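Annex B. Sample input.
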Amino acid sequence: MKKSPLKRHKPSEESAQKGKSEISVSRFFEDCAEPLKLRWLAGKNGGGRLIHEASIHRPGLALAGFFDYFADKRIQVIGGAENAFLKHLSAEKRLDSIVKYISQPVPCIIFTRNIVPDPAFIEICDRISLPIMVSSMVTYNIINGIILYLDKALAPCIKVIGNLVDVHGTGVLIRGASGIGKSECALALLRRGSALVADDVVKIKRTSNSEIFGEAAIDEMIGFLEIRGLGLINIIQMFGISSFRHHQQVHLVATLKTWNSLEKIERTGLDSENYRILDISLPHVTVPVAPGRETANVIEVAAQEFRMRKLGIHAGHVLNQAIIKKIAAGRNVRT
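Annex B, continued. Sample output.
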């Protein structure tokens, strides 16, 4: 009996799968050829070279022979200034400069402004399988595009079990034991106007701005929600395109737990909790689950309360301060 391809392995909460902090040149070209207007000129056998850093390097000093602090793990960008310097050199010195430069273990070289590379670049890079690309974009714009792309592609990431839902602008990661009702809760939120980002397994990334974003970890599950006893449903067909997000910042973590498993249940909201993901602390709420209790309603209100607290309005603190003032006023009257 063949196994269904939909029955996939899921990471445990304790052994979240860390993503790689590298990307191949081939994958970079595949993703960026159109937006960055790239053409692959030479070294096409070097597509397996790896890019390790989310930045670029302009090799002006390296072409002049100074290799201290040379960033060989970054994409190399040669613009008008570097090309003018090479043209200023004699043929012998230019060849020597190019040979010394491309002997460094760089991932790839990109020429901007449709600059035609010196023939020595094409000949040697084809021989050593060093990718050379050319873009029609100006240097400033292509540098920005590369950095924006690599910032996302090389962001630290893990995969966690849960559902990620955009609750009216607040990204809520719903956690909990298997079978506790995470997907059913997400379904109820969708019916209230929220949007699904990921069901079952969420890929979480941390950006350079220390923000946490999530998306579906399995491409085939994008736009689908699994409901036990019912099976898979296509939420885009059922609720419309507005019920889905490709990615969403995670603002709040909600953990579903059975009522009987909790030793202490928060009553006032004065004791705030945090949940750490990729070394970033996020606000956390524990939501008791019991028969007849509308969990989706509680999570929707938790998302609204999160937004209120961001504005400086904290109901628990307001009530606590009012009680403290009343107690203090009573003491003053007695004295």
